[in-house]
Amino acid sequence: MTDLERAIREAAERLDDHVRAIVQWHFSEETGTPYWLERAATLGFDPRSEITCASDLQRFPLFDGEVLRTLPHEQFVPRAYAGRPFTIFETGGTTGMPKQRIGWEDYKTDYEQFSDTLSDEAFPPGGYWLMVGPTGPRRLRLAIEHLANHRGSSCYFVDLDPRWVKKLISGREFDQAKAYMRHVIDQAVSILENRRVSALFTTPKLLEELSDRLSIPDAGIRGVFCGGTTMTPQTTRFLVEEVLEGKVEFVPTYGNTLMGLAAHRKSLRADGYSITYHAPQPRAILRVTSFDDSDRTVDYDDWGRVELTTLTREFFMPRFLERDEALRRRPCDDYPWDGVGEVRPFGAESSKIVEGVY
Amino acid sequence: MTEPIHIPVLRGGETYSSLDRAELTSPRDGRVLASVSQANAGLIRRDLRKIHERTAVLRSIPTRDLLEICKRAGELFMTASLPIDDDGPAQGPDDYVALLSETSGLPHTLCRRNMNKVRTVFDEMEGILGGLMRGMDLSVVDTGFGEHCGVRVCYYETTDALGVVLPSNSPGVNSIWMPALALRTPVVLKPGREEPWTPLRIIRALMAAGCPKEAFHFYPTDHEGSATILQGCGRALLFGDEKTTAAYAGDPRINLHGPGRSKIVVGEDMIDDWREWFDVLVASVVDNGGRSCINASSIYVPRHADEIAAALAEAVVSIEPKEASDPDARLSAFANPKFAEWIDATIDAGIDAGGAVDLTLEKRGTPRRIEVGGSQFLRPTIVRCQRIDHPLARTEFLFPFTSVLEVPQSSMLDALGPTLVLTAITRDRDWIRELVRSHSVDRLNLGPYPTSRAEWDQPHEGNLFEFLYARRAIQGAIPGGAEC
Predict the structure, then answer these.
(1) How far, in Å, CA of B360 to CA of B351, rounded?
(2) Cβ <8 Å between B42 and A232
(3) Amino acid A183: pLDDT
(4) Does the pLDDT at position A358 exceed 60?
(5) Which has the closest alpha carbon to B80: B95, B101, B64, B60?
(6) CA of B49, closest CA in chain A: separation in Å?
(7) Which residues 270-329 of A have a C-beta within 8 angstroms of B?
């Protein structure tokens, strides 16, 4: 057995243990979540005795994200956390009533773990951060600040409201969208020109716009942590080679309010700038499912729709079909479980998706 | 099986191999003929930001020298093996014709005819500039100063580069942007999806002839990339259907080249002699496979419409699809078979609505759409329309199609609508004066000339010199003379 095969087996065992523990937690009378305790009666199986490993999660039906819009938050408060105030986070660019996830410490745990994947050279402890992107009711804003704090740093913020951008673009108000983009970038440039910032979190589009106004490495930035919209291999290469002038470490990420944060496989150049993300397993699982049959996992290097399962004590969400599609990628040394490659909006090949300027 | 050719992006003449590729396939058998590097919009935007540095290189060369370069380039375009990518085999003229035919559907005969058209533009560039500049001394382009008809003139460049979003319908369309180089303006080209070959070969010929590589930007790209070119260049030409061009209507920086809807009108004074110039009607409909915006899509006559439509149908009904390499081939295949299906269905729907008859269908007795050698063709179609507001009356399609209408001469002008080329067959001076004053007509052919005839000293869809240069009022003297 190779080292990788051994690592894969051990990771799978850890995941199975974690699945059992989380299912026990959410379905027990003492600690359980009201929503799941009620749902247990209609599932047709006993999760506590019959969900014994990760593959058993397939017995759950697809998670209906609508309940995160419609049900009272209290339905998702595990009894173990009863009476503790919680934070309410909303999904990113949704217009209309957003999905809301409540939480306590999850975002801190997720980002502290993620911090271990960042290099001190590119994200120097104690150096200032700048976040240019969606703040507001999103988990990302607190998470980035916590990540900076966790690394002994503090963070400046420039907000971008993706819901407004989406409305402008859908309404073909491109001039307004551009003016808003300029407004956002003006603020970022102002901070970079007047403060010493070494790490940046932003979206691909904003990063590119920022580089139109100043040289990012010359502005003192050593690491860029980037996510929010699709990055094709060509876009990624362009960002690395030209926007960042080959001088700044580029850390693409895939994440959202419901999952947390997936880290990228480090071999970006060797992979032809095709980005592969790995979920923060065992706290979340990403599976690439057949477009026709969500019960079936596609073969490696085939396209499919991304399915997310979140497994923390604060939040249990089995089998939520994301609005993304991706290539199923093989495990690697750093992440000995499946990854998702070249993530893009579901149906991106057949229709133009409004991802906005952010 | 041979490897597909890689068509690169050119950034100031430097080849760039993108990680995003589009496959260019043969519509006949689905073979992948080329892998086309796609420029992302951000990359284009970045290049355009610093284009003025590259513009300076081209503007350091006198116009006279550029005209010489054009002459050499014309010869190279016709005869030389020219590179496509830095690596890989060079492309000779026969390879060019074969690939162009394969991806665009044009038969070899029309490919070669269009090659000659491009060469003519190279060879006649001085005359073309003379027409665009109304005989002004070409040194005005170099110095910005001059004298014309005894009046001092001063011109300045309106842009650092000319953006061009090209179509795929006909290689000859490249003749419209080519004079920009001789006018010392770099070009930023987005080729049509099925026709990257001709603009790239023109660029390669010019580079081989000594034109600075910095003058050339070639970006196969998506809609966002096209929009970046249109918005990022100070001046741009946009080819496309009405839906594509509508978004830029009213923007003086962008010259729109939508459907031509070219027409022929015949006056009362000459209609009874229609058999004498009947060949002009046929040529206007079928030249260049009927694919150009300068092909006639409507013919207005004051009488004899039934006879003329029947004679036209008789004349074109024998034109049948042939293999691409057949020297007698006159029709082009459709690179996108679905487009042929759509056109066919649209015409059928128009006929079914009443008020129009497909005379060719009646004469031929076989369907309009046919597959030959794996390719979809539409056979020439002549429709006799009863009224001007019929959906087929003023419609242009990408094959030899024309509607014949009987319209009183006094109503023809009002019935024109936007018309790229109007051939007016008349000697009625009063009516000609009215036609000359019309805002609907871009090019006016007076007399029995095919709509497809181009005289190179006349502008096509706007004057490129006046688009790229603006006149400045000038008074006083420049110390040391005009050479500054």
Answers:
(1) 12
(2) no
(3) 97
(4) no
(5) B95
(6) 8
(7) 272-273
pLDDT for residue B479: 65
Chain B residues with a Cβ under 8 Å from any Cβ in chain A: 18-20, 38, 40, 42-43, 45-46, 49, 223
When CB atoms are compared, the residue of B40, B49, B223 closest to A238 is B40
**Cβ atoms A47, A4 nearer than 8 A:** no
Tell me the CATH number at B407: 3.40.309.10
Strand partners, A268: none
Q: Kindly state whether residues B200 and B308 are assigned to the same domain.
A: no
Residues B207 and B326 in one domain: no
| Same domain flag for B234 and B266 | no
Q: Give the lowest-confidence range in A3-17, A38-52, A95-109, A316-330.
A: A95-109
Within an 8 Å CB–CB cutoff, is residue A242 touching chain B? yes
Q: How many structural domains comprise chain B?
A: 2
* DSSP summary character for residue B91: B
State whether B266 and B291 are in the same domain: yes
Quick: pLDDT tens for B131-171.
999 889 999 999 999 888 888 899 999 999 999 999 988 89
Instruction: Give the CATH number, domain containing residue B253.
Output: 3.40.605.10
User: Which pLDDT belongs to residue B484?
Assistant: 41
Domain that holds residue B287: 262-446
pLDDT band per the 50, 70, 90 thresholds, residue A227? confident
Could you give the percent of chain B with pLDDT greater than 70?
97
Residue A356: pLDDT above 80? no
Residue A357, classified by CB atoms within 10 Å of its CB into exposed (0-12), middle (13-18) or buried (19+), is: buried
Which residue in B19, B38, B46 is closest to A237 by CB distance? B19
Going from the C-alpha of B252 to that of each of B158, B224, B255, B462, the distances in angstroms are: 11, 20, 7, 12
Residue B190 shares a structural domain with residue B75 = yes
Residue B198 within any structural domain of the chain? yes
Chain A residues closer than 8 Å to B49 by CB: 212
- Distance, CA of A353 to CA of A84 (rounded, Å): 40
Residues from chain A that touch B20, judged by Cβ atoms under 8 A, are 232-234
Over range B398-419, report the average pLDDT. 95
ipTM: 0.84
DSSP A28: S
- Quick one: B94 and B224 in the same domain? yes
Question: Is B46 in Cβ contact with A212 (below 8 Å)?
Answer: yes
Q: Is residue B252 part of a domain?
A: yes
| Residue given tokens 């200032």 in the structure block | A128
Lookup: tokens for B186: 């770099």
CA distance B106 to chain A (A): 28
Q: Do B42 and A272 touch (CB under 8 A)?
A: no
Together in a domain, B271 and B157? no
**Closest-approach residue (CA) in chain A for B19:** A234
The verdict on B204 and B318 lying in the same domain is no
**Residue B452, in any domain of the structure:** no
Q: Do B42 and A208 touch (CB under 8 A)?
A: yes
Could you read off the pLDDT of B2-31 as tens digits, one per residue?
788 999 999 999 999 999 999 999 988 889
Distance from CA of B224 to the nearest CA of A (A): 11
Contact A272 B20 (CB under 8 A): no
Using a CB-CB cut-off of 8 Å, the residues of chain A touching B223 are 352
- When pLDDT is averaged across residues B210-233 and rounded to a whole number, the result is 96
- Does the residue B467 lie in any domain? no
Q: Could you give the CA distance from residue B379 to residue A45 in angstroms, rounded to a whole number?
A: 66
